[in-house]
Amino acid sequence: MVMKMDKILTFIVNEYNEILLLKGSENDPQFKKSFWYVVTGGCEECDSNREETVKREVKEETGINKIKDILYLNWIFKYNSLGIECTEYAYIAFVKEEKVTLNEENIDYKWCDIKEFIEKIQWYGNKKELYRVLEKALNKKIYFKIEKIEKL
């Protein structure tokens, strides 16, 4: 039997249109190295929907609990991680609060403008497409009119 998991990926944006990058620990069980990424996490039974997962994961990984707005980006990633078939849904969360408190998964964080964010993030897809998606999302618009599924 194949294990499956629904997950979320969340770009966090502050009131200055800066996007949060987290630097993971080199103790990462899958990648075994440190790199810049965004909040990700699995949907749990306690979450009534994926937006609840976004709120919970943002709070767990950054300490931020004041999310003003959450936007689903119509973007899905499918991949295998440690033997589990993952379906990851991309969101953007707008926050007012900037104080970040890291959990044990992360060793650093940085608020970046979109160009620096694109340059630094570890991204397995097309970074030009990521830029276009984020450019629209920063203005609370959706780049993909229908859901786009990418296999990574």
Strand order of the largest sheet: 4-1-6-5-8
SSE run: EEEEHEEEHHE
Question: Could you give me the name of the CATH homologous superfamily?
Answer: Nucleoside Triphosphate Pyrophosphohydrolase
CATH class, named Alpha Beta
User: Mean pLDDT across all residues, rounded?
Assistant: 93
Using the coordinates shown, work out and report the CATH topology: Nucleoside Triphosphate Pyrophosphohydrolase
Radius of gyration: 15 Å
Low-confidence runs = none
How far is the first residue's CA from the last residue's CA? 21 Å
Count of all domains? 1
| Share of residues in strands | 35-45%
Biggest sheet overview: 5 strands, mixed
Oligomer: single chain
Can you give me a brief rundown of this structure?
The protein is of the alpha/beta class and about 150 residues long. The protein is about 20% helix and about 40% strand.
3D structure, described in words:
- By secondary structure, the protein is α/β, with parallel strands linked by helices.
- The protein has a single domain, classed as Nucleoside Triphosphate Pyrophosphohydrolase (Alpha-Beta Complex).
- The chain contains 3 helices and 8 strands.
- The mean pLDDT is 93.
